[in-house]
Every structure is written in structure tokens, then in C-alpha cells.
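U., I forgot to send this yesterday:
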Amino acid sequence: MTNYYEIRHTVGFEETNLVGNVYYVNYLRWQGRCREMFLKENAPSVLLDLQDDLKLFTLKVECEFFSEITLFDELSVRMRLEELTQTQIQFSFDYVKVTGGQEVLVAKGRQRIACMRGPNTNTVPSRVPDDLRKALAPYAEAPALARAGLGG
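Result:
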């Protein structure tokens, strides 16, 4: 079993620039898409909670690029739990180009989010929901498991 959550993506025209390579902002979009699909498939109760008063505030995103990808490249975006505290989650992302069974790491990213609750004018930090903690456990890197008390 893999310890990452994965979405597959084929690069389209709208994601490339005039030179023909992928415009950098798309890597951040794919992080968001990966996170959304994870919630849809693994923690649907959290999606319901988001319709109530739970908010997932993105505090930080980053991406480091190693090589370019272009139109119609097949991409695997792989998300892992890097850190889990009482109120925050940090994910790591690997962007892997997949060609004919060969895999090449083209970029790495990171994203930190905070769980908040309350009205927009008065949000306060909130514990990461238990359903989300449970859903994330299989995707944790070893140090994250230890820090979060999720097993060994």
C-alpha cells in the first residue's frame, strides 16, 4: 500500500504559457484539487461540516520546481500528511511525471492549513475534526504519525 493520496492529471492547453510549459500557478491549483478530492473520497463528513461553520484556512503554500512539464504530460500529484497538530495540518506534495511506466519527480510542494470555526467576523482556531484525523492517518509520514499520536 502507498502512503500517499494520489490524483492523476493530464496537462491541458489552458495550463500552459506561450512557451508551452506549465504556468507555475497551476501547481498550486493542483494542490487544492488534490486536497478537495481527498476530502470528497475519504472524509465526506468534513465537507458537510464545511457547509456549517468549519473553515480550512490556507496559511502557507510553496512549490519547488525541478524540471518542466508541457502539454499532454501525464502527472501524478501525491499528497502526504507531513504534520498534524491540534488545530493545523501540513501536507507535502510530490508532482511526478508518468511516461510509459517511468516516473520523474518534477516538483515538490507543501501546504499548511488551520482549522477555524465561527462567523467570518469572529473565527477562532478549532481542533482538527476526528473524522479528518482518521482519514489522514494512512497517508502520514512516519514523523507525523509520532507527533500526532496516530500509531507506530
